[in-house]
Amino acid sequence: MFNSLKGLVVTLVSTMNGLRSPVTRQYPNSGNLLKKHLEPTPVKDRFMGFPALTWDEEINEPYCTSCMVCIRGCPTQCMSAVMKDNPLYEQEKSSRRKIVDSFEINLNRCILCGICVEVCNFDAIVMTHEHEMSTSSRNGDRMNLPALLELGHKFQKETDWIPPTKRAKVVKEDATEVSKASADAEAS
Amino acid sequence: MLEAILLTISLDDFIWIIVGLFAMFTCLSIVVLSLTWLERKVLGRLQLRLGPTRTGPMGLMQPIADALKLILKEDIVPASSEKALFWVAPVIVVISAFMIWVTIPGTQTAVIQNLDLGLFYIIAFSVIGILGLVLAGWGSANKYGTLGGLRAAAQLISYEIPIIMVAISVAMLAQSLDLREIVDGQNDYIYVFVQPLGLVLFFIAGLAEVGRTPFDIYFAESEIVGGPFVEYSGAHWSVFFLAEYINTFAIAALMVILFLGGWSGPVLSGNWEIIWFLGKVYVVIMVIFWVRGTFPRLRIDQLMAFAWKVMVPMSFLSVVMTAVYQFYDWPAWSLTAMSSAGLAVVGLLIFKKMTAPSKLVAEVKARREALEAQRRPAASGGGD
Amino acid sequence: MTQIPENIMPNSEPVEMLLNMGPQHPSTHGVFRMVLWVDGEKIVDVVPHIGYLHRGSEKLCEGEQYNQVITLFDRMDYIANFNNEHVYVRAVEKLMGLEVSERSEYIRVILCELNRIASHMLFIATMGLDAGAMTPSMFCFRGRERIQGLFESVSGARMMHNYFRIGGLKEDVPDDFVHQVREVLDLVKKDTEESDKLLSFNEIFLARLKNIAVMSAEDAIDFGLTGPCLRASGVDYDVRKAAPYSVYDRFDFDVPIGLDGDCWDRYYLRVQEVYQSIRIVEQALEQLPSGDVASSLGRRLLRPPAGEVYVRGENPRGELGVYLNSDGTDRPYRIKVRPPSFCNLSSLKHMLKDSWIADSVVILGALDIVLGEVDR
């Protein structure tokens, strides 16, 4: 009896909270009648969406060399790749001897585990923040090389992507700079 | 048949009744639309959700979208069903729901056909709806449906008795079964002040009568997946839905008329008093939604035990109390005192019945603490 | 109507009715099917059917490299992913004789306990729904959502994390992890208290759950129940205490036990476990050492030595055991999982005897099964 009444009080309080600040966040846009926010709920930095290939802006070619490490590491065998000789290497513009010729990821098979990104030695593949990719055709989610590169390029631009191998260096340099600065500060 | 009707009432009256029925149908449909929207919004906010938002401002067009969808949906009739019963069941349910409203007055004049035996008529018609539910359960040739239909029969008939008894005690107070006179009888004081027990019993039994949580046993979603309605879809299902909300509205309206003074209130007069009436009814309905958002569902045997062991005796008691009060012509406060005492007894009964496990819990807690105390030194000594 | 082989039909009187509950039923928690023999509203007998979600996970494990198997364990008990990963990862580490850095052990424990809280919150939510109360489910999902947001910021995925690695973690947690967890814990504690206040001692809820499906301690042990279902019957057994693994022996926490062994005890015990898990996480956050977590093994092809190993851990649902047999190649020779849900489910027939149809839903709910784990 008393506990039931207590429950009624709890729901009354929660109604007041619900009127003031409901928990629901609307999708794809939020806000109320007067003020509409058109941005979807942001994903976290580490969010793993669909995988895509990155683009080396400096040399204007993909990072990927079709070394097949990610393909061997993939638990669902959702990728395939073909390698070719890099024309830019012959012109001595690039340090990559081989380069990707064709690459396909079947996103319907992909389980978004991120193993491919982890095993890649060339910073060539990333988990993008893309997650709204339903299509109406059967082959709609089989992404080929241009589509993957486009997806990856979009992700690079959106997040100011730094290749993980370089990122580690940057962090170290920062640390040395900081320590230098603090040493300077102490010295002065 | 028609001749007989025409003999008792004049043609003018007859046409007026037809017009009134159409008006009633329209008004009730609008009310049902508003109730579905309100319920979803209120429950949404209660659960920290938003409720419908996408259809129109604040989701106001949601009921219309729902209705459109239900009407356009394919109406599936199971191959093994009893076709005739399957078709006629929703009609029975919805007709009984609408017929009640023929005699429920919104104000002194806003009533289609006032009857001297209005209360009697309402109770008689509300029982017919049960028949529709049982037929729906049986006719759809589904075991969940059958179970639901039988549960409905048991539950609704059991809770009809307390409703009748409480209504009788109010009728005794007003010395009339005419709803308008019952409201008039509350000019000095509304009956909830002399019959608090009656109000509580009527509210609980009313919840059971319209199958609202915690008594939504005959269509329990998580047990028998919709009960009698499990095989219905499209327009047929929407008819059940309509009837359910009309019944909820009727129970709330009856409660307002019998206990809360109907349309009487300050400031407004004449037909404007319907605003008071609707306001009170919507407040009662809000309480019903609130209860729905709070409580779990009872089990069928607990429900029946509660009906026959608590509700029925207490409703008889309320009749007896009213009779004694009327016979000896005691002052009004004496009935208030008696009824409050009765309410306390109900509270105690619920407390005793339902808190039997609660005591067990206390016991378990004590035993657990004792065990913990025993275990502590052992654990620290024993290691793993 | 449902065809049932003759030999599993009980000797039924004509009054009994066969009621097919599931696999499409709102309260069977996935695709579980119960064929009930009912006499009116009373259950006479029940034949449970499983296997609708069978994906052959154990066989699939044999075809995957050791690192890839982690993704399969994520998908077994899909409510408590971190706990599953933890047990598997520990099995391989034990086989290889690896030492794991302190920091990664602490982070693992923190994430596992958070996952336990999330799992129990889902249980409270569904328990309320099974009993017919809608609101607690929303309160609990709010808390679970917060924890999952935290997981997303740590591992990049809300449910299928693939974050634990053999010998460590995939990467270190974000910088503001400790602060985030503290924030989430406070809110989750409030959410749990709110639904606790609303549901646990409600008279109707008590009437529905108390003294339903009582299991004695002997029966519970005989049926091989583990986890909250076993402790509700009054057996003080928790793998975290009985055979401490990881760094669980460094924390001060209680193992709540019930004494009646009924559905309400099973429910309330989980509510208490939420508070205990919060305690563990708070202690772990205080003790969290700095250091390296990343495992270089994640990028390498693992070839553990030939041999076999059995490792167990306390999952939200009970004791998860992993038997791992290696033949020295880069793929496991055989992996056998002892899923807690499956073993707990074996007691269903015993519990359902002579109960009501309405109880069957509550009893199944209180067992808290995950069909992904039962069928694998």
What is this structure, in a nutshell?
The complex is a heterotrimer of chains A (188), B (384) and C (376). Chain A has 188 residues and is an alpha+beta fold.
3D structure, described in words:
The complex is a heterotrimer of chains A (188), B (384) and C (376). Chain A has 188 residues and is of the alpha+beta class. Chain A has a domain at 51-162: Alpha-Beta Plaits. Chain A has six helices and nine strands; from the N terminus they run αβββββαβαβαββαα. Chain A has helices at 2-20, 69-73, 87-90, 115-119, 145-159, 164-187; strands at 30-31, 36-37, 51-53, 55-56, 61-62, 79-85, 98-106, 125-127, 142-143. In chain A, the strands form four sheets. Chain A has a three-stranded antiparallel beta sheet with strand order 6-7-9. A two-stranded antiparallel ribbon of chain A has the order 1-2. A two-stranded antiparallel ribbon of chain A has the order 3-8. Chain A is elongated, with a radius of gyration of 24 Å. Chain B has 384 residues and is mainly α. Chain B contains 14 helices and no strands. Chain B has helices at 2-8, 11-46, 62-72, 83-100, 118-139, 143-174, 179-184, 196-209, 221-224, 234-259, 274-294, 300-328, 332-354, 356-382. The termini of chain B are far apart. Chain C has one domain (56-374): Cytochrome-c3 Hydrogenase, chain B (Orthogonal Bundle). Chain C is built from 15 helices and eight strands. A three-stranded antiparallel beta sheet of chain C has the order 1-2-3. Chain C has a three-stranded antiparallel beta sheet with strand order 6-7-8. Chain C has a two-stranded antiparallel ribbon with strand order 4-5. The model of chain C has no long low-confidence stretch (mean pLDDT 86). Chains in contact: A-B, A-C, B-C. At the B-C interface, α6, α9, α11, α12 and α14 of B face β1, α4, α5, α7 and α14 of C.
Q: How much helix, percentage-wise, in residues of chain B? A: over 70%
Which strands sit side by side, in order, in the main sheet of chain A? Answer: 6-7-9
- Beta content of chain A: 15-25%
Number of helices of chain A: 6
How many independent structural domains of chain B? 2
Q: Name the chain pair with the biggest interface and residue counts per chain.
A: B-C, 45 and 50 residues
Sheet/helix structural class of chain B: mainly alpha
Largest sheet of chain A: 3 strands, antiparallel
Query: Which spans of chain B have pLDDT < 50 for at least 5 consecutive residues?
Result: 379-384
